[in-house]
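note to self: dont lose this again. the chain is below, predicted strucutre after it. 124 aa total, dont forget to put it in the shared folder this time
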Amino acid sequence: MATMVSEQGVTVGLPGGRQHHFHSPATVGEALAILDPDRAADAIAARLNGQLTDLAEVILRDATVEYVTAEDDDGLAILRRSCAQLLGYAVKQLYPSAQMVIGRVTDTALTMTSPMNAHSRPRI
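---
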């Protein structure tokens, strides 16, 4: 059974003290935008009570939220993985028969394989 926001709502805060009380459900992204609107556009993910999550996560109980930006190791890893998935999607749009497997994404490379035979592989 899913936990619901109580009738009293939830209180969400940033590390360091700033808090806001929500009377109805709010996402992590909405909470960050209210708690620190100047930094809201920089967030690509967040930590909710210390756990990495996306900005669409609904806050169900009192919590602490923290920004994750591209300057953070976790944020950079998220961006790299997202870019690899977008590249894979673009390849599938160009070559629908391609069977993409996205492997490791590191700080210097990403690994993608596509088992296409030599006759079906276009010359680029």
